[in-house]
Amino acid sequence: MAGRVGLTILLLTTSDEGWPQVAMLSVGEVLAVDDRRLRLALWVGSGSTANLSRGRRATVMLVVGAETYYLRVRTRRLADLALSRGPRACFEAEVEDVLVDVVAYATVTTGIGFRLNQPEEVLPAWEETVAALAVVTT
Predict the structure, then answer these.
(1) How far apart are CA 26 and CA 126, in angstroms?
(2) What is the pTM of this model?
(3) CA-CA to 95 of 20 to 30 Å: which in 9, 13, 87, 101?
(4) Cβ 133 vs Cβ 81: under 8 Å
């Protein structure tokens, strides 16, 4: 997991007023279960949690290499995760379709990235979260 620190995954949902809302997720909050399903661990009281609980549709966006991926997903809320740093809302996202955005006239050189200020504190929490996502029963 330490080798993927900095990869940012965008989660786009729609508020109850119809406005787009963007959440930035880390590799410590997303697990690819297989090639058609993701699991997400979100803050229980977040706008994204409320939006997904109500609307169930979202777009997941990430940049890998020179390619930008947009995954349209339908979600369902599972039981919350009981983690040492507080509960997380758990969602399973079924991928409906994928758009790979590549154009001949330009090359994506970077997506949104970040650096952890205290990796020794954050990485164990991420590992706990991803391990909990892996054993969720549906």
Answers:
(1) 9
(2) 0.90
(3) 87
(4) yes
Q: What is the CATH number of domain 2-134?
A: 2.30.110.10
| pLDDT at residue number 33 | 95
Q: Residues 56-80, buried b or exposed e (16+ Cβ, 10 A)? A: bebbbbbbeeeebeebbbebeebee
Q: Which two tokens stand for residue 1?
A: 């997991």
Q: How do beta strands 20-25 and 57-64 pair?
A: unpaired
DSSP character string of 35-77: SSEEEEEEETTSHHHHHHHHH-EEEEEEEETTEEEEEEEEEEE
Structure tokens at 97: 């379709």
Dihedral, CA of residue 51, residue 121, residue 119 and residue 58, to nearest 10 = -10
Local confidence band at 1 (pLDDT 50, 70, 90 cut-offs): low
Amino acid at 97: D
